[in-house]
Write a structure and sequence with these properties.
There is one protein chain. This protein is of the alpha/beta class and 211 residues long. The protein has one domain. It is 37% helix and 11% strand. The chain is built from 8 helices and 6 strands. The protein has helices at residues 16-32, 84-95, 102-109, 121-125, 130-136, 148-159, 175-187, 206-209, and strands spanning 47-48, 59-64, 70-74, 164-169, 194-195, 198-199. The strands form 2 sheets. It has a 4-stranded mixed sheet with strand order 3-2-4-5, with helices on one face. A hairpin with a 5-residue loop joins strand 2 and strand 3. The protein is elongated and about 105 Å long. The termini are far apart.
Amino acid sequence: MGKIKLAVKTPRIDMTPMVDLFFLLLVFFILTATFRPEEAAPITTPTSTSNAPIPDAHLVTILISKDDKVFFNVDNGTDSTEHIRAKVLQAIGSNYQIRFTPKEIKKFEGLASFGLPAAKLKDFLNAPDSKTRELMQVGIPIDSTDNQLLMWIRFARTYNSNLAFAIKGDGAANYPIVKKVIAVLQDNNVNKFNLTTDLKAVELPAEFINK
């Protein structure tokens, strides 16, 4: 009697659960991702050969545009529940007798760098669109009579003592304004800071390699 041959079944993998998982992850990332806000002014940084990294959090960035306007940005650190930006804004408001609404504070927390006098902040936060806000950015005052940049730095350090500082200046910015910004940092006892540049590779001459 001949042997009965069993039918050989080809293995089949059901991909339906994997597809469902993929779409669940995609929806999760879309809902939780936050887009980085645009900077207040386009900055073309000069090149350098330094490779010292700038921290991603606990950072104050002072931007200097090519037309010598000064902008300021401070992040919320690694724990956004501390609402450092909100606290700094409220401290500035208290110093200049400006009362911000919860809506304005929330709007401020979602913005990036900014550069305008404190008296214009409420109009800035209630502007109808980003184009209007851009036109209002005339730079933060750093005059000796009203050095508002100094106040922003002072209050930022009050609410986050772990801050690092970086100056991001346009390559076409004039040296005197950069010198003023450095002087403001030193007035706040900030003597260590980064200069943001574009990393540039440099080939060493043969005489240096052979030594």
